[in-house]
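Project standup — Tuesday

K.O.: blocked on the structure for the chain from last sprint. Re-posting the sequence here as requested.
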Amino acid sequence: MTHLPEHTRQQSPDSPTAAGPIPRAPGTPVSATDPARAREARRVIGATFLGTTIEWYDFFLYAASAALIFGPQFFPSDNATASQIGAFATFAFGFIARPIGGILAGHFGDRIGRKRMLILSLYLMGGATVLIGLIPTYATIGIWAPILLTLLRLIQGLGVGAEWGGAVTMAIEHAPANKRSLYGAAPTIGLPAGLMLANLMLIILMAVTGPAFLEWGWRIAFVISFLLVVVGIWARRRLGESPLFEESVKNEPAKVPFLEVFRGFTPQLLLTVFVAGVPSILSYIVLTWALSYGTTQIGYSQSALLWIGIACCVLQIVMVPLLARRADRTGLTRMAVAGATLMIAGALLFFPLFNTGNIWLAALATLLAHASTSFAWAVVPPILTQAFPGRVRYSGISMAYQFGAIVGGGFAPLIATTLLARTGTSWSVAGYVVVACLVMLACTLALTRYRTHRDYADDAA
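H.V.: unblocked you, prediction finished:
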């Protein structure tokens, strides 16, 4: 039996290593002193980051296109607000499909392995994205245009639903005991990296295609996803399976993992849905919904807001790993509470600055609001991972994150558009974010009593 160093065992109670020494049993995560497994862990970090970046590129490419393009192209109307609501409704449909993708992928991921499902998720997402770039508009094929767009958006939702839970599970199950937040940051920063890539692609195409961008230039960004998916699949095929699954879970997998989650871990599931879902609300408000609001209501240029989004992504890519490393040392709950508190402040500051019409103040407002979500995203992966044992971990994480996406970001642009239309003031949108953050704060504190799998010792049982 191997013991962790004394200073590691004395971390705070909510630290991932707080329960004391971890037996060096089969299925124990990679040791920092094992060169072969350490190399494999580094490959997992690279492959999970690359794959999630591609998935989120496809997903956020649709989000930006829904805000800027799809309204008049696929939902033409004399009422611009109605047209925009139609486009955002298809955006929300992708979130409805995400839990289904998470449940299906979690079922097979917990029974036959994490790696296969991660490869399948890239096939689904990449295929749907390429086909979206080839759909004729409403002017060409009428009602079939929005129908096909919605169906492909649902397939995108299935693909991304299968992705994040598996990538986080794979990364953290390969992690040394004192670096689980840091390893969990790899698939997490794939989200801002994908958003940054999507915004850069749209900016380049706007400049190159000019007036033709709204007609056909935007399609290039979707079709080119084919090349990115090929690279992602190549990287993931080179990986080995999760050591915890291969040596522990595989011997006695759950028969129906999602039912075990519902029956045996209902409190954990309900709480983690809000912990994982609420940070997305503020992100989608300031980076997706604000694209439409800022251009139509305030008068900012599309390219300026896209560049602000890119700056936010760069900041988050830097912040999340640093904050995750800090959380590995000081504990998860402190960082999560700080995140909820700072998001409340960010929501209250955002609109007074953004509504000034000054692009520099708008940039400051967006950067501050989006930076506050980094504190939460630094610890969401290990918090979710600790809430569920290995035999149902892929399913549990996927269900929490994807149901959270519906509660959180999926309907955020639609809710914000509706609130603004009915109240006439952006303060109603800020109030919506504040209430959601208070709910997240309460759930984070309540979840500490259920975080029983922090050392993964039960995975071998």
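K.O.: great, moving the ticket to review. Residues 1-32, 455-461 have pLDDT under 50 and may be disordered. The two ends are 16 Å apart (CA to CA).
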